[in-house]
Amino acid sequence: MRLHRLTLTAFGPFGATQEVDFDALSSAGLFLLHGPTGAGKTSVLDAVCFALYGAVPGARQSPGATLRSDHAPAGLPTEVTLELTVGGRRLEVTRSPAQPRPKKRGGGFTQEKAQSRLRSYDPGRGWQALSKSHQEIGEELAQLIGMSRDQFCQVVLLPQGDFARFLRSDAEARGRLLGKLFDTRRFAAVEERLAELRRGAEAKVKSGDEQILALAQRIAQAGGPAAAEAVPPADRPGEPGLAEAVLEWAAIARGAAREHLDIAHAVVAEAESRQLTARRALDAERELARLQQRYAETLRRAEALEQRRPEHDRCQERLERARKADRVAPALELREEAERAHRAASDVLDGTRALLTPELSDAGADQLAELERRFRQELGTLEAARKAEVRSARIDEERVRLNRDARADDEIVREAEAWLTGWDAARAELTQRIETAQEAATRAEQLAGQLAPARRRLDAAHRRDGLAADVQDAREKLAAAREQALAAHESWLGLRERRLRDIAAELATGLVAGKPCAVCGSAEHPAPASPGDGHVDRATEEEALAGHRSAEEARARAEQQLGLVRERHATAETEARGEDSAAPTVAALHSLVDRLSDEHTEAHRLAAGTHAAREALAAAEREHATRVEQRQEARNRAAARTSEREALDREQAGLEEQLAVARGESASVAAHADRLTRRVARLADAAEAVRAEQHAAQRRKEADDRLSDAAFRAGFDTPQAAAATLLDAAAQRDLQHRIDVWQAEAAAVDDRRSEQDVREAATRPPADLAAAESAHEAGEWLLREATSARSAARDRCAELDRLSWTAAEEVRRLGPVRQEYERVARLAGLTAGTSADNERKMRLEAYVLAARLEQVAAAATARLQRMSSGRYTLVHSDARSGGRRAGLGLHVVDAWTGSERDTATLSGGETFFASLALALGLADVVTEEAGGVRLDTLFIDEGFGSLDDQTLDEVLDVLDSLRERDRSVGIVSHVADLRRRIPARLEVVKDRHGSTVHHRL
What we know:
This protein is α+β, with helices and mostly antiparallel strands.
């Protein structure tokens, strides 16, 4: 990776735009970045880190801090542009942090979002835009650089203060730094996973032991006294021997329970015999008591029967008289019916006479009939007058009709004239509608030509957004393929290294006695090498190599797929952009398509109304002709109605003279006829009511005679006596039921008196049920107690057998779980450094970091020996100090004294060049870890003021050696002597208006 150009605008202490030309500075190989304290030397490095990763180094990324310069004017946005070459590609990345900017309208500020842009340089086409997405740019640069931000800040921006602290820190602090750089989280995850598995297995074992102890408690509860004969196990969950103790104790409890069950069987047999004897005695006493009680009940029923005999005789006599009165009942009903008919006829006669005049109140039927005949004759003479009156009413109706028609025609004339008044305006409006519809048709054709391209752009925008997700998926697959290829490469190299270490054993397999060795040429082979543990043969190495090549092919396919998806995405984005300079969003294109669609729909709707407008104009012209015609017809009908009205007036005058004679005193002929009709009806009703009352009186007299004769023949003195004796069917059934009940009771008493066993039981002493029941209850209680005890003993044995079987099954089930726990606990203790097998008490992550630290110490020693004139060597130490764990110790070996001591004992100058050597060595190791990305530009920050002239020369020689193979090193320092020794310089000058940079070449 080589830096070419850096442009800073309103960033940190730089209030204006400043540009750093790294190509010019790097031409000398070694350049100096200097300036007074606070001028902004470190801010230049912060800008490089911000351009690549979107954030400054972690130590300066404090919460609430802003990257915007306080010296910058309000309208100048903060921006950093870095041009670099990495992975064989020349890129330009531009980033702007979130920052306030003046509002475009009104006063105040608004918050501007962070922005990122990435471009790639093509010699044939110039700069080409790649992406504006923060995520895509970050992933692209991270894949090309191969390092995280923390690794970059430690490898490229070498902070000497951090490595001086690293030299003096303890193992825990070194572990945290190395863990960030080498990403050993997977080994820590292995430790945590094993610890989690150990805790889970331990929990399962304890849970199983708790279940076994719970079964033991249930066995103790189920066994009762039998379980108490043996001491229960006192082991706790997780202790060995718990399961065997529980099973042994359960076997003892089962044996004691079976002995108690045998005793319970014998007790139940004795109780059953005693209960059977008591039961037979109780049944005999109960039978005797029943017979004696039956005899006493028979005597009580016979006595009660004699007491009810008088009532039985009265019921029987009353029933006989009621049956005689039933023969008189038809005559009684006939008399009552005749009486009701006579009363009804009398009421009707009184009502009809009340409607007649007083002189006719006592008139007979013949007189009333004569008056009815005379009124009917008078009613017949009014028929001609009725017809004249009907014609007069019809003439009135004709006049009403003529008036209604006149009003309707007047309304027609008014409506026609009102409509004809607005005819010119309506015709002009309809003509305008036709012209508007024709213009809308032309507009619809234009909009249709704009709508189709807009829809194609919208479809392209949808494809663009969908392909953006495909690009992301392709990047993720490429990253996974790269990781897999790197892992396969490391696996192959590891196997190859192991095979080379044991190559002597592999060659030894081809030795033949008496034939020369292919290596040394000797024919004798006294001690051929034997393969060690984990020996790797050639087939295994070739298989790993094939896996590595397959992973590389998968990576190449993933890169090809990513390029294809990117090309499709770019095509879709170009099509979606159309003629616009900026790429529109899907929402904006949706809005455009919706607007054009709405306008096209509206224009098409208006254009579709052309035919309707023409039809409306034709209909209006037809309506105009119709209205004119209706107005003339209405005027003609008005003239005809005038003649018809005069004829009706003449006819009605003649009819009025005839009706005046026929009406008499009534208001009309109909009223006079109606009054005569009512008189005729009243006279007819009165005559009929007189005849009906006379007939009802005759029927009542005949019914009285028949009733008297029927009562005498039935044996009653008067009809009233027969009526008083008469009973309805329900009362007679009740009397018969009472008689039948008495007779049935008398028969039952006679049957009981004839029973032989009842008479014999009455002669014996009274039965003693209390004593027999007491003896039986005692036998029942003893049997229940014995049976309950036997059932409890049987259930106890069954429950103990079931629980013992369950406990045995639980012990068998827990066996593999306990074995798994022991295996996992052994592995977890080994990786956590707590196992006795781990002599140095090193955790797995610390072991891996110790190997990395050993590589770093070896790489740093090569430069430290040159800086110290061969005096000092850095070595890794895995010795324990105090009670802490071993693995991350770092010592320095002094060649002058031959002693090895801790790096914390170095002096200030010694600490500087030791930390510088360590930083450079760490950069080499991390670079190799990141996949061998070449770092053509390095920065070293401060620490040179603590060196003497000779040591400074040696350090500069070491740094100057880094320039080999076109590598450049930038030193950040304010030491004045370095300005004389390093001609290529970048000076940062601070001012009250902001800092500026100046190139000194």
